Amino acid sequence: MALRVGFMGTPDFAAAALRAIDQSAHDVICVYSQPPRPKGRGHKMQSSPVHEYADSKNIPVLTPLNFKGDDARAEFAAHDLDVAIVAAYGLILPEAILNAPKYGCLNIHASLLPRWRGASPIQQAIWAGDSETGITIMQMDRGLDTGPMIAKSVLPITPETTTTSLHDQLAPLGASLALDVLGRLEKDGALNAEPQNDEHTAYAPMLKKQDGIVNWSQNANRIDRQIRALNPWPGVWSAIGETRIKILQASPLPDQSVKPIWDKHGTIINRDGHVFCGDGTILKLEKIQPAGKKPMDFAAALNGGYVDAGQIFS
Questions:
Q1: CA neighbor of 149 nearest in space, from 163, 162, 135, 139
Q2: Residue 40: which pLDDT band, with cuts at 50, 70 and 90?
Q3: Which secondary structure element, helix H or strand E, spans residue 107, and what is its range?
Q4: Residue 26: pLDDT over 70
Q5: Would residue 310 count as lying in a domain?
């Protein structure tokens, strides 16, 4: 018998799972998402990707600001759900919501829990230099991503992995794993879950604009990971004089047996875009964006007079 499923999510990552569940044999009874918000220069109100998909399929959408009131909790309970699937929803769910569906609320989390609990697991896995990440389906409890784990699927992280590319791999993986778990729940009427080991956890906080500032005294490999992790948001940048320059793409040069030494980290040491970093390492700038200009490769920025050899990023 098909499960009565509620879905709670907001961005593209969540929309992939909603689409898969909606196209399965299960019944999506309701969708919860963040309220429409103003976007773009005209500040036109725009619904979330999850909201837009649900509207296109005539699935009822609710957008409460929170679940503090009795009315919102009673409305959720009245859906008489077997299970709720939650993916990047953006609201903390109180115990009354977690316990309302017959089998509770299951979360699609973009990390291999207990590593990277929190709001930015995709970015932090790249930035930290992890060799792998993946999807965990967990039974939600009152803690922040602390619930017992039901299923996992692993993806490698390579030296070329970016947040965008990893997001685009994890979204369908999360959708597929959620379908597998729902299939097991429909068949067995129960799910086995493994408690998390809190000793192995790491926290992935919400990203801030300041996270994008480059510290050139760090190793070039770490700066490269920062660039790959934090584009497109908040972006990674430094400045030459008064000009802020966004760094969109770069690559660390292989370690050299004889390492050149300059007086200051952040020095552009030649017209090839090589920048002197911590530990005597070198980062090659490939694509940058001076403030107010379009993205360009380093050679174009050099020819345009935006950067030059001998200048120092601050």
A1: 139
A2: confident
A3: strand 105-109
A4: yes
A5: no
* 3-state SS class at 267: strand
Phi, psi of 297 (to 5 degrees): -75, 165
Domain that holds residue 70: 4-204
For residue 42, give the 3-state DSSP assignment: coil
* In a domain? residue 175: yes
Domain boundary among the residues 142, 171, 204 is at 204
Integer Cα distance of 212 and 112 in angstroms: 25
What b/e readout covers 41-54, taking b as 16+ CB neighbours within 10 angstroms? eeeeeebbbbbebb
Shared-domain flag, residues 228 and 199: no
Query: Which tokens belong to 61?
Result: 């959408």
Nearest Cα to Cα of residue 157 among 131, 176, 183 = 131
CA–CA distance, 244 with 15 (Å, rounded to integer): 35
Can you tell me the distance from the alpha carbon of 130 to that of 303, in angstroms, rounded to the nearest whole number? 37
- pLDDT of residue 290 exceeding 70, the answer is yes
pLDDT category at 44 given cuts 50, 70, 90 is confident
In a shared domain, residues 134 and 278: no
User: Does residue 242 sit in the same domain as residue 109?
Assistant: no
Q: Report the C-alpha gap between 88 and 111 in whole angstroms.
A: 12
Of 67, 29, 31, 75, the C-alpha closest to 51 is: 31
How much is the pTM? 0.95
Q: Which of 171, 204, 237 is the last residue of a domain?
A: 204
Spatial CA neighbour of 123 closest among 226, 213, 202, 35:
226
Per-residue pLDDT tens digits for 159-186: 999 999 999 999 999 999 999 999 999 9
Going by C-alpha positions, the residue among 49, 22, 24 that lies closest to residue 36 is: 49
What residue spans of the chain are helical by DSSP H?
Answer: 12-22, 49-56, 70-77, 95-98, 121-127, 163-188, 220-230, 298-303
Domain count, the chain: 2
Amino acid at 286: E
Judgement on whether residues 74 and 182 belong to the same structural domain of the protein: yes
Among all chains, which residue has been given the structure tokens 């590319």?
165
